[in-house]
Amino acid sequence: MVATVIKHLMNRARPSPALVHAVQPDLNHGQFSFPAGHVVSYVAMFGFLLYLSLHMPSSWRRVVERLGFGALIALIGISRIYEGEHWASDVLAGYLLGFVGLMLTIWLYRIRTPSIAP
Fold first, then answer.
1. What does pTM read for this prediction?
2. So where are the chain's domains?
3. What HEC string does 1-55 produce?
4. Is the pLDDT of residue 82 over 80?
């Protein structure tokens, strides 16, 4: 929600098809690039799942799970730039905004669930 408000306030143009090869050159009519919404969502969602996984007993399945969550978070930013949908600064802002949302979510979760260790 916050990312959508920022997108509309910034109204930044997406990379031009003349500059990069864009998979969907007319996405949102070439507007609303900043911040990268997919990155915000992935960091918030998979970051919280990673947080929960870190507070469970460890096993080889948990290790694979944690590596998977980390890979999804890392690779979404690269993919958004590679597909020509966002500038690198859009992706960095997405990571920052997603991290802030993740920290807020973890803080609220810990308030409601005091049995979780720091």
1. 0.75
2. 36-118
3. CHHHHHHHHHCCCCCCCCCCCCCCCCHHHHCCCCCCHHHHHHHHHHHHHHHHHHC
4. yes
